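Lecture 7 notes: from sequence to structure.
We start with the chain below.
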Amino acid sequence: MADIIELILDDHRRIRLLRDELHAAAGQEDEPAAGDALASAWDSLAGLIELHLSGQGEIGLRLVPGIGAGTRAGSGPGAGPGSGPGAGEQMPHAAAAHDAIRVAAAEARSQPAGSGPWWQAVRTALSIWAEQLDHVERAVLPGFGRRTDGAQRDQLGRRWLTFRAARLLDLSPPA
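Predicted structure tokens for the same chain:
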């Protein structure tokens, strides 16, 4: 079974591991390759975050109550897409948070790795991401799991895996 909840949580675990690798690379600032190590660690981390955010939109998770919406209102049992109090506010809030993460990641890419402005942009992106991640794991996924059956979660999971495989294939250099 390709349960979308487990796949999302797997992504979250991988992102946390890459964040830890970024912090480990930061501890090597006295070495000449520190900037390269930081840039590489950040590129991997930012790439996975972007893949995760893109996947939510691509397979329609933003339309599923609570997933990707960063919502608290309208996500109770029986709530459908776009239903419940505050439903009109859900999508713009999530889109704004995702856009802010993307803007901060782009700012980091435009700065020398390890510089003050680079760290500010990285911290901004990770702070917004952490807030989203915490909300999804604590408030959204448990409710979503109660409202959907295994077949629905499996169908979304298969779409997620197909999207990821296609995106990763697009990013791979030709053989």
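Points to note: The chain has five helices and no strands. The helical segments are 4-26, 34-58, 87-109, 116-147, 150-171.
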